[in-house]
Queue: 4 jobs
Job 1
Amino acid sequence: MRFEEFDDPRWPLIAGAKWPSRYACSEWGNTRPKEKADFRLCFCFPDVYEVGMSYLGFQLLYPRTKDIDGVDAERAYCPWIDMERALRAARLPLGSVESGRVLRDFDGLGFTLQHEMSFTNILTMLDLGGVPLLASARSDSDPIVMAGGPAALVPEPMADFIDIFCLGDGEVVNPPLLELLKKTKGQPRIERLRAAAELDGTYVPALVSCTYDEAGAHFASEFPLPRKRVICRGMDAIAPRNMIVPASGIIHDRVAVELFRGCSRGCRFCQAGMIYRPVRERSPQLVDETIRALIRQTGWEECSLVSLASCDYPHIGTLLQSLADLHDDGIKVSLPSLRVDNFSVGLAAGLEVMKKGGLTLAPEAGSQRMRDVINKGVTEADLEAALNAAFEHGWQKVKLYFMMGLPTETDDDLRGIVELAERAAAIGRRRTKRAAINVSVAGFVPKGHTPFQWVAQNTREELARKGAFMKKQIRSRAISFKYHESEQSFIEGVLARGDRRVGRAVLEAWQLGERFDSWSETFSLERWMEAFARTGVDPVWYSQRERAEGESFPWDHIDTGVSKSFLLREYRRAQEAKVTRDCRSFGCNACGWERRGCEWSVTSA
Amino acid sequence: MSRLRMIFEKRSFACFVRHVELPQLFGRIARRAGLKVALTQGMSPHPHIVMGPALPVGVISLCEAAEIWFEENISPEEALERMNAQAPTGFRFLRAARIAPDSMSLNKCFDAASYWLCPRDMGRLAAVKRVLSEEFGAETLLALRECADGLELVMHDPSQTGPGALVKALTAREEISGWPEICIARLCLGRWRADKSEITPLL
C-alpha cells in the first residue's frame, strides 16, 4: 500500500471494531520502549483501554519501573469481545500498546486485580497473549505472571493462574522483585519463584498448599505464613513526576494526585478502608507542587484530589485555596467523593466541575441504627445539613447512594431509605420546583479482611423483594428510585470470599465464554451457574452462608496489617449497633497497625 | 493574539482518534507547549479552536486543517516547533500561517478535497471505480482517475460529502462489506481550479 500503516494486519480489525479509538495507541508521554532491557514487564489491565488508562496505579508504577536499570515496562489492555473475536479469526496475538510486542515475549506480566469481576478477562489476555493459563503449565521461557491490587489480598480464586501475588504498595514491593527476576533470568522457573517467595510482600501460591475441613481452609508451606502486606510510609517520596496522556478521551480524563492513602473512618462494610491502612498523608505543599507540575507536563485541564475520603484531609480547605489561581488558566479542580456534611458540600460548591450535574452523597444506609451498624459516621443532623447546603448552593439534582442486604437489616431500615429520600425531596422542593433526587440502592457484597467477612450475603430473591418493597413506597415524583441487578453481586460475592477451588469455576466460566463480568451486556449468570455445576463448586456455600467466628478463612494467610481479632471485635460491635469512632480524632482502636508503627496510634497514646 | 491556521497530518493508528476529540487534544498539546489558547466569548468560554472538515475515523490524512487563537503573539514557525514537540504519536503539524483575525472563516476557505482510495481486494479496483462514477455526479465527484496503487479522486464540498459517503455507496452496491475492506487517505484540502483540474491547497 502507498501508506505503510495499511499493511499492519491489525488495521482492518480496528477499522471494523465497535469503538476503534480504544485501539488507537496514540498517546503523549515517556512510553518509548528501551532498545535493550534484561527484564521486560508488561503491565496488564484486565479491562478495555479507556477504563485501564483511568487507573492511577499503573500511571504511578510505570515510570518507576522504567527508571530501574535494565528493566522496561509496557502496557496491554483487554480487547472488547468484538476485537477478541476478530483477533482469533485473524490468528493475531495480543500485544502491548507501545510496540505490539506479544505478551508471551515479555519476561513478566503484571496484572492488577481491582475487583473480582475482572478475573475472566485475565484469562482472555493470557490466552490471546499466548501464555498458558495455568501457572503449573508454564515453562521456563514463559513470562512470570504477577498480580497486585486489592483482590490480590484475597487471592485464592486466582491462585491457579498467577505465579506471584504482590501484596501492598507497588512502589515498595516491585523494585526488589523485578531486580531479582532480572538477575535470575534464564534460571529454572521454580528456582526463581522460590527466590521471589523469600522477598517481602510476595505470595507464591505454588509453594503454599491448602487443605479444607469443617474448621475452614488451612495453609501449609516451608515459607513463613502469613504473608505480610508491605506499605510505603512516606507519601512525599513517591510523588509522580509525569503521566501518560491518551489522545482520545478516557473515563477519568484528568490529572489525579493522591492526598493520602488509607482511611481511618472504619466503615465496617468497606474493604478499602481496612486493607489500605494506616493513613499516610502527603504534605499539602507537595500536593500543590505535584499538581502544578503534572498539569504542565500533561496538558490536562482538570485535576482531581484523590483518596478514600478527600474531605478528611486536614489541609483540604487551605489546599483548595492555594490552588484557586489555576482557575485563571482554565484548570478545574475536583474531588472524587464527598463526605456527607455541610463542610464538604460547601467545599464542593466552590468547585466549578462539581457544580455541573448532580451532587452525589452516600449515606449508605437509611436509618441511624443501620448507619451505626455499618459504622458510617453520619448523623441525621449531618444529612439534613448536607442536603440543605446542596440546594442552597444551587444544586437541583442530588444523587443518594445506599446499600441493602446489610447485616441485621429489617424492613424498618429499608423504610429509612425511603423516608430519607422523601425528606431530601421535601428539602429540595422548598428551594426549587425542579429538585430531583436520584436514589440508587446496591446489594451489599461482604468482602474478606472486613468486619463483615463472616456474614451471609442476601439471596437474589431477598434483594429483589427488598428493592421492590422500597420502590412501591416512594411517593414524591421528584424521586427516581433504582436498585441494582443482583446477579452480578451474587457472583462477585462468591469470588470475593472464594478459596482455591473456586478457580476451577472461573476457568470453566471463561471457557464457556464468560467475559467482562462487570459489564451487564456481557455478563451471564446462566454461564456462571453452568460453570459451578460442572466443577462441583457450590456458590451458595461461599456467599450466603453465615460463617462461624472460629472459621479459618482462605485469606487468613494474607496479613494486611489489620488483625482478625480487631475485625471480630468490630463484627460483634456491629451486631450491637455500637459505633467505633475515628481513631485519628478519638484515640487508637488497636486495629493491629499500632504494633507496626502507625503514627496515629503514637500521637493518640 | 495570533490566529494561526495549521495543517497537520493524522497518520497510523491515530486516525482512529475521533475528529470531535481534536480540539481538546490540541488544547492539551498547547498547554504542554507552554502556549495559551485564547478563550471564546460568551456564556461558556472554551478554548478558541476551529477544526476543518470532519474526517471519519479510520481515514488517514496528510492535510487536516485547524485554526488556533493563541493569546500571545507567536510566529507560525515557533508554534509548529513547540506544538510538534508535544504531539502524541501519529499527529504532526506540517505548515502554519498567521491569519488576520477578521479574515474569512476557515470553513469558507476550501471547497474541495482529494483522496487516495484502494480496496483491500485490488481485484475490485475497476469495479469500485465504476461504482463511484455511477453513484456520484460530476458536481460532487470532480475528478476520478486510476493510478498505480489505487484511485485518486477529488470531491466537492468536503464539509458535506467525504469518505463516509464513498464507503456507504460502495457498501450499498456490495463492492465492499464496510470500512475494514477499504483504505482511504485524504491528500489535499483547498480550492478546486476547474481550469487546471487541480486543488490549490489551503496553505
Job 2
Amino acid sequence: MSEPEIKPEVMRISWGPQHPMSGQTRILIDVDGEVVRRIIADIGFTHRGIEKILENRTFIQGIVPIERMVMADTANIALGYVQAVEEALGIEVPERAKWIRSLICEMGRINSHLYAFGLQVECTGYFPAVFLWTTVDREVLLDLFEKLTGARWSYSFFIPGGVRADLPEGFRDEVRRAVRYLRRRFQDYWDAMVENPLFEMRNRGVGVLSREDAIRLGATGPVLRGSGVDMDVRKDEPYAAYGDLDFKVITEKEGDCLARLKVRFHEIEQSLNIMEQIADEIPGGPVRTKVPLFPRSKPGVEALSRVETARGELGVHIFTDGGLKPYRVKINSPTLRNMYVFERLAELGRVLVADLPVILYSIDPWYLDCDR
Amino acid sequence: MAERLTAPIYGVVDYLLTWARKFSIWPVHFVTGCCSPEFMQVSGSRFDMERLGVLPFASVRQCDCLMVVGVISRKMGERVKYLYEQMGEPKFVVSVGACPTGRGPFYDSYATVAIDDLVPVDVYIPGCPPRPEAIIHGLMLLQEKIRRECGFRAGKE
Amino acid sequence: MQARSEEELVEELKREHSELLHDAIVHRSKRVSVIAKRERVLELARILRDQYGFTQPVSAGAVDYIKEGRMQMIYYLMNPKTRFMLMLRVDLPRDDPRMPSITEIWDAMNFHEREAWEMFGINFEGHPNLTHLLLPPDWRGGYPLRKDFRGEGIRP
C-alpha cells in the first residue's frame, strides 16, 4: 500500500505568556516539521512606562521605579541611574562608598547568575531539583542583604552621594563565610551539571553565534563574551572600585549554549574573588557626601553612565532642564539587544524546536528589563 | 430519627470536603511581573509552599487558583482575563504584590492596570515584593475562606 | 584601522566630511557626539561603520524638545577596538518627524526604531516592519513619550 506524500507546511506555534518555561513573553515560532524557520518575539507584556514615570519623579525618588527593572540584580541597575545623576549634578562619592557599591554589585551579579544557571538547567530536561538548589543558595545572599539593608530584593541602598549606611559589625566575616559556602556548592554544581554527558549533549553545538555575528547583531553580556569578544564595561570604563580590584574578563570561543553557561559559571567565581578582596581590603572613611534631598539641576546637562549588569551593558542617559526632576531618561537595556539576537538565530543555523527553550535561557532574558 | 442522623454526617462530609480542597490549591504557573523571584523563593526549600499542597501547574483547566504575581500591563491584562475564564469552578484569585492591587510604584503610568478592573479577587497580599512569610499568610487566609465558603452546604443557606 | 583617540576622530570627521554633519563634539573621555544632517545621515552612517570601525550597534532613542519645536533621534554606537561610545544625533522638526531608517546599515536598530516610532511618532522610511513593539497592537492613545501626551494619570 502506498502512503500519501507528506507535504511540508509551515505551522505557527504561539508559545505564550502562560507556560512554565516561557517567561512573561510570547514567542511565535514558524515550524516546518522539527526545524524552526522563523522566530518572532512579541514582547511588551510587562511594559510599565518607566521612562515616562521617571520624568515625574525627583532624582532620588526615581531610584524606586528603576530598581524594579531586574529584581534579581537591582544593585547594578540602581548604580547605573545613581551614577548618571551624580555625573549630571556634579556630586563626588567617597572611596569607602565606592568599595561598598562594588561589593553589593557583585553579590547581585552572583544572585542573577545563579537564577540564570538554575533556569537553563531546568529547561534542559525539566530538572526542577537543580533550580531549587540554586534557590536555596540564593537565600544565603538574601540573608546578607537583609542584614545590611533590611530588605531582600529591592533595597534602594545607593543614593546620589554614596550609600545609605555603613557596613554593620561583623559583616565582613559574614561575607567571608558566605563565600566559603558558595565555593563548596559550586564544585557540586560543576560536577553534577556541567560535566554531565547528557547535559553536554543538549548544550554543545546548539545555538552557535559566531564572533562577527555577535558584534554585528549587537549582543551584550555573557552572550557576547561566550563568542570570544572580551568586552566588559568594568574593564573598559572602570566605575565604582573596579579600577582597584583584580579580576579577569571571562571569554569562551565556541559561542554555543555550553560556552555561555561556562562564562556565567566562571564569572561567579570571579565575583567571589572580588567579594573576598573587598572584605579584606576595604578602606575606611565616610560613606556619604552631604547632598540636599531635592537637588536642582543645571539646564542643558546630559550624562550617560554605563554599567555592567549580569545580563550585559546597561546605559542610563539623563537629560536635565534646570528643574527638580529629569527632563528625559533614556535606558539602554541589555535584554532588548539580546532578544534581537534570539530572533535572528533561526536564520544563522539549523535550530530545532526542542532546542528552543535551551537557547532562550542561555541568552538569559529578563523581560521586565526589555520592556521597561 | 433519620434527620437526627443526617445532620452530623453533613458536618463530617463538609469538613472532609473543605479539608481536601484547601490543602490542594493548585495555582496556574503564571507570573506577570517582578514579584516572581520572591514567589520562586517561596517554592524553594526554606519557605516550602508544597507542604501546604500548593503546586504550580502548567495546564489551566486543571488548576483552581490564579495567582497574579506582579504588575499587569495592558497586554497581559487580556491574558489574565482569558485564563480566569478558562479555569473550572471553584476558582480563586490571589493578587500578590502592590502592583496588581493598586498599581504599586507605577501608579501614574499609562501602561499599568489594576486587577479589580479585570477579575474578582479573593485575597490581596501587599508588599513590594511581599516577604515569603506574607505570601504564605495570604495562602492561609485563602484556606480559611475555602473552609467557610466552599463546603457541601455552600450556597444552600 | 589604528585606534584613534576621541579628539583625533572629531577633527578628522570635521575636516573630511563636513558637508554631511552639523557638528562633532567630545563631551568627556569616551563620549563623542556627531550631529548629522537629516538628508545625509545614511552616508555618514556608512562611513562611520566602514571607515571608522563603529560596527557594534548599542541602542537608539529620541528626545522631545517641545519648546524648541524639534525632536532629536540619538543612535548609540560602539567601536569594539577603541571602546568608546559615539552618539549619532539627528534633529527632526516636530511637525514632520521622518527620517531614513538606519536598519540598512546596522540591522540591530530594528527594535529600537520600532520603539521610537510607537513612543514618539517618528516615521522611519524603509524600515521592514514598523509595528507596535511594547504597546498592545490596538493602541489608539497617541504617542506616550511626547511631552504633550495626556494619557490617564499623567499629571501635567
Job 3
Amino acid sequence: MVIMRAIWFVSQIAFFGLIASRMVVVEDYFRYYVSGLSVMTLYSAAIFIGFDIYEEAEHGVFEYLLSLPVSRRQLVLGRSIGGGLRAFIYVGPLMCIALYVVGITNPLNFLVALFALFLFAFGVSGLSITLAVVIKSSDRFDILMGVLDALIVRLSTAMYPLSFVEEANPFYGWIANLNPVTYASELFRWGVGIESALSFKNPLLPLLGIVLFFSFFLFVGVVLYERTIEGGGWR
Amino acid sequence: MPPIIRIENLTKKFGNFTAVDHLNLEVEEGEILGLLGPNGAGKTTTILMLATVIKPTEGTAYVGGYDIRKNPDKVRELLGVAFQEPKMLWVSTPWDIVNWHAKICGLPTKERKRRVREVLESLDMWEYRHRNVHALSGGMQKRVEIAKVMIQRPKIAIVDEPTAQIDVVGKHKIWRMLRELREEGTTIILATNELYEADILSDRVGIMHRGKLLVCDTPQKLKDSIVGGDVVEIQFEAEPSPKIIEKLDQFKEVVKITKIKRSTLRLYLNKVEEVVPKIMSALMMEGAVISSIRMSEPSLDDVFAHYTGLTLEEAEKGGS
Amino acid sequence: MAVKRHILYILENDFRNFFRYKWWLVGLISMNLADLFIMAIVYNRMLNPEIAKQLKSYFDFFAPGLTVTGLFASAFMIGREVNMEKRREYHQYLLSLPMSRLELAFGRVLSGGLRGMMYMSPLLLTCFVFVGFPTLIQLLIILCVLSFLATGISGLSIATAVSTRSIDKFVTARGLIYYLLFFCSSVFYPFSLIEQLGREGKFPTFLVLFARINPLSNAADLIRSFLLGTPPFSPEMVFSVLVFSAVFTGVAAFAYIKLIERA
C-alpha cells in the first residue's frame, strides 16, 4: 500500500499537477494541487487502521487486546493516536517531497498547520476505527470506505478552490464547506504560504473545524467503543 | 498387466537441494499405494511431478502409458489431485469450487448437479456450500479439496495427506470413500505421514526419506522384515522353569527371550500370528500354567526406524 | 470443441470471482462516478479561456477518458489475482487440470479483457448519453478497439504478475505501469498540453512520445473524435491499440505458461 501510494503521489506531481496547471485559471495551481495531494495521501494512510482492525479480528488479536488490563477508552484513544502517528510516518517522506516542491514561507504558520494535520490524522483514524467496530463486516466496511474515499476527496478543496466547487453545484459547495479534508487542505496551504487561492481568509476557521472533527470522532468513538465493543461476530 | 504408473529415475533438484533423488517405482492398476515419510521426504514433490505441475530435473514417469514430459496434457486427463494444502480462492464457495471442477473434468450437467450434492453431503459440507472459503476452517477446506477428487472419480487419484486437520469421524468417512473409489477401479496414490492411515488403507507402502524411496512392500511384509519385531509377553502362574525357556528357544521364529519379571517372559519373534498357537501347544505339553498373554507387532514407525535409524518424529525434527 | 469448452470454463471462473470482489468494484465505481459527476463538473468551471475554447466542455472531454480508465482498471485486476494465485500456490491446481497450457493462458488473458469490457460498458453508455451517440460503424469500431485494448491490458497485467516473485516487487511494478499509462496520456488532459510542455523543455521528449503512442491516449481520442469531432480521426489511433494488444497478448500467454510452471 505504501509503495503504491508513493508511486501514485510522485506521478500525480510529475504528471497531473504539472499538466493540469496549464489547463486551469487558478493561480499557482501546481503548488495548490501538490498541497492538496499531501492531505489526500495523509487521509488515505490514516483511514487504513480500520482495515487493520479486521485483520486483527481475523487472527484473534482483537479479542486478545480486549482481554488486556486496559480500559476501552484507553484502547480506542491509543489506537486512534497510533493510527494517526503511523499515517504521518508513512506520509512523512512524501510530505517532504511536497514541501520541497511547494516551499515554506513562514515556519511558524507551518508548525501550526502541522499540528492541525496531526489532529486531522487522529480524527480520521478515530473515524475509521469507529466505523470498523460498529459495522463488524469487512465487506461492508470495504465498500463504505471505497465510497467515502471517492466522495470525501472530490467534495473538498483538496483539488480545487471552494469558489469553483460552489459555482459548479451549490450542494457540492455546502458539503465541501463542512468537509475536514477541506479544512486540512486549507490549513496546509496557509501553513506553506499559498495565499492566493485560499478558501478561508481566516485560518482560525479551518483550525476550529479540524478541532471539532477530531473532538467529535474521539468522543463518539470512545462512547461507541465503550458501549458496543466486544469480541466475536466479525463477518 | 503392465503397471499403470512407472517412475524411472525421477529426480527434482531445487538449486543444490535434491528433493527427489532418482526415484524408481511402479504402481499397479487398482491398488492403493501409500507414500509414507516425514515432512520434507519428497512425497509432495513427487506428486507435483506426476501431476505435471512441476517438471522433473532428470528421469521421467509414465502415467497410463503417457510420458509426463512428452504428453503432459494426456497425463492430466487421467489424474485427479487433492493437494496437501487446499488450493482455492478465498472468495469462492464449496459449491462453486466443486461444481466448476466437475465441469472442467467433463461431467454432464444433469449428473453434475446430483453428484455435487452427493459429494458435499457425504463430506458434511452441504450446509456450508455457499460460504466463502475465507470463512471455512482448515478441516472444512480440506474436505472441499477431497471433494474435487471424489466428484471427478478419475482413473488415477493422487491424494496428499487427505485427512490432515480433519476430526476422527471425518477421517473414517474419507477412508471409506477412498476404499470405495478404489473398488470402482481407481488407482490411488496416498501420500501421508500418518502411520495408521498408511497401514489400514494401503495395499503397499513406499517409505521415503530425504528424497529417496527406501523400501516398498505390503505393510505386513514391511513389519515382518524387522527381525524379532513382534513381541509376545507371557505371564505364568509360577516362575517358568529353565526347561520351558529352552523349549521356547527352540522355535526358529523366536529371536530373543527376556525375563522381565519373576514369572513373566518377553519373546521377540517373527510371524507372531503363525507361531503363537505352536508356542501355546508346547507350553501346555510342558504343563505350564499361563495367567495372561499379550501380543504386539511393529508399527510402520518401527519399520521407518529400522530403515533410517530415526522415528518419523525424529526425522521431521531434524533428520530430514 | 473441448478447447472452446475449457476456455469458456476459465472465463466463467474468472467472471464469477470478479464479482465476488464487491468492495473493490463498488470502490472503483464510486471513484469513476465521482470523477465524472463531481471532479469533471468542477474542472469545467476552472478551464483557462484557451483550453475552454479548445475543449468547449471538460465534462464532455473527460467522459471518454473515464471510460478508458475504467476499462484499464478492471482489465488490469486480473494481474493482481494471478500474482496472488502464484503466492498461494493456487496456480498448481490450475496447472493440474485436464487442459493444455495454451488454453489456460489464453483463457486467463481473454477473461481479463472481457471483464474490462463488461465493467466499462455502463461507463461507455453514460458517455454516449451525456456526450452523444456514435453512428453504427463508429460504435463497432469503438467496441472493437476497446476490446483489443482490454485484452492487451489484461496481457500486460498478467505478464507483470507472473514475472515478479514477491508481492512488493509486483506492487511496485504494477504502480509504475499503472500510473505511467494513466497520467502520461490524454485521458485527463488534451495531448496538446503535453506537447506544449515538451516544447518548453518542461516535459521530457521521450514522455511526450510515450503519451502519443500510449494506447489509452489513442483509445480515448478515438472515442472523442467520433463523439466530439476533435481530435480528428487518425488510423494511428486504431493501429497503436492493435499493436499494443498483439504484443502483450502474445507476451502474456508466453510468460504465463513459462513462468507459472517454473519451480
Job 4
Amino acid sequence: MTMQTAQAVNNGVNVAALMGAREALSETPAAARFNWRATCNWINGTHSRSDVQSFFGLGEEQNHKMMTSFDADHPEVFASEDNGPTPVEYVLVGLASCLTAGIAAVAQHREIQLHSVTATLEGSMDIQGILGMDSDVRNGFDNIKVVYDIDADASKEDIEALVAQSQKRSAVFDALTNPTNVMVEVR
Amino acid sequence: MSNLSCSAICRNPRLTSTVIIGAGQAGLAMSRCLGQQSIDHVLLERGEVANSWRTERWDSLRLLTPNWQSALPEYCYNGNDPDGFMAMPEVIDFISGYASRISAPVHCGVNVTEVTQTDFGYLVDTNQGSWLCRTLVIASGAFNIPMIPKAASALPACISSISSQQYRRPEQLQKGGVLVVGGSATGLQLAQEIHRSGREVTLSVGEHVRMPRQYRGRDIFWWMEQSGLARQSYKEADDINRARRVPSPQLSGSTNEDMNLNCLTDQGVKLVGRFSGVHHSKALFSGSLSNVCKLADLKMRRLIGRFDEWAMGVDIDHRVFDQAEFEPTRISSVPSLDLDFSSGEIKTIVWATGFRPDYSWLKLPVLNHKGMLKHDGGVVEAPGLYVMGLPFMRQRKSSFIHGVSDDARALCQHLVGYLDDPTGIRQQCA
C-alpha cells in the first residue's frame, strides 16, 4: 500500500474515468472505434486553413466544444508569406502534445505529482527530398529529437519511466514510427 | 455406410470421469493429482509423452530454468548438476520418466478432433474413437501455432521464411544473410546461433524483457523463487491480461552467460526495430527501437531493485556480492528503418514472433473475441472444464515446468469438488 500523503496527487487527469472507460470498452470493443477528422481549404499560395470540430467515437457522432482553425504556410526562406507554421511543425506539435498528455496521465496513475513539464522538439530533414533533387533522400523527417525537462516529485528513474511509458501508449508516436496506410482520393 | 459406422462409434464412447488432453508436464501433473484422489481418467496425447519437446524445438535449445528447479508433483531432478540446464533429450527423459513413475494412463497417437458438450459432460471425438467424460482438462499447451505477422504474405519470392517451430539448426537455412524477427529468448538465441554459423544476421526487436542470467552470484530464477515473485497470484497482478502477454525473458540455458542485445551487438548482430510491414520489396521496421530498449532496461532495474529490497529483509549469504550495475542497451543513434530484399543482403527470415494455442477442435462457447480461453485461474467458463499450463494462469510461474504442480493441485481440488457436487456453488480454489 502507498503511504498516506498529506495531499493527493493532482495532475488534472481523471484516471478513474479512463480506467472505467477501458473496463466498459472491453465489454463493447466496437465502441472503441474512433474516427478523427479535419477539413482543409486552400487560401492562396502555400497558405491553407484547416478546421477541426467533429469526430466519431463511442458509437456516435461527437463534437469538440468549439471549432479550431489552424493556418499553415511556409516561411519566407521558401519564398512564401509565412501565414502560419509549416505542416511538418504541426507534426511536431502533435507528437509533443500527445507525449505530454501521456506523461500527465501516466504520472497521475502512478501517483506522481508533476510541477512542470517542458518538451523541446527538433525534427531534421534534408530538403533535397521535397525539392526532388535526389531520389535517395526521403521527403519526411529522417530524425526527430524530443527532450523533456520535467520537475516532479519522483526519482530520475521514475521520471524516465513515465516518459518511456508515454511513448509506448502514444498514438502520434506510433503513427510516426510505424507505417500507416494513407488513401488520398479525389471526389 | 461410413456415416453409419461413424455414428456407431460416436454412440459407444468410452466413459471416464476425466479426460486430460495432452501428456506434457501439465497434463501429467494433473494426472498425478487425480490419481491420488482415485479419480479415473485418461490422457489423450496426439504424439508421444512430451510431444512438443520432442518435435517442435531446435537442436541446441536448453531449458531457461536451472535443473534444481525442475520438479513435478512428488518428482524432482536428482542428477549431479543442479545448476545446469537440460538439453531437449534430458527434458524428454525427465517428463517421460515421470509418466512411467506415476503410471499415467496415457493413450498415445490419439488426436482430438472435436470436443462438444452433452447432458452427461463432454464428448471428446478423436481419430481413435470417442470418450465421454464429466470433466475435461485442456493441457495441450499455449504454444501450438506460430504467430507470423500478416505482412509475411507480401514477402518477395526470393526470400524463404521459417518459423522457430520448424527451425532446427543453421545448416537448414540457405547461405546468405538472415533476418530474425523477435526479441525474446528464442529470437536472441537463434540470432546468436545463426550468426555464429557465419551468416550476417539482422535482429528485429519489439517490446521485450531483459534479464541477467545471474545476479549477485545467484541465478535469476533463484531470486524469483525466493523473493516470492514466481508464486505471485494472478489475482495480485496489476493488469493480468497484460501480464499474460509478456514475452519470455532474454535468457539462455547457460550458467553465467548473459543473453542480451548488447552481447549480440558485440558479436556483430545488427539491431533494427519491430518488424512492421513489407512495402515495395522492403521490410519496414518501427522507429521505436530506442524506446523499447529503454523500457526493457528500466523494467529490469525495477525487477532487480525489488530483489535488492527483498534481500535487505532476509538473512542470506550472498550479500557479499555487490549490487551490479547494468550497462544500458546500446543502439545505433540511427537504426535502419528498412531493409531492401532486392539487395540480396537477406535470404531468409526466421520468425520468432511467438505462438498462440490451437482450440480449433473445441466446439464450446468458451473463447473470447481473440480466440483465447475465458477462464478464472484455469477454471474455464463451462462446468467441469479446466485448462493447465497457460502463461500466468494462476501464478507467474504457471507456464514453466516447475509451475504446474501448484496449479494441478488447486485445480484438481476444484475438479473433485465439482464431481462430488456438480450442482453446488462453484468452489473457489485454494
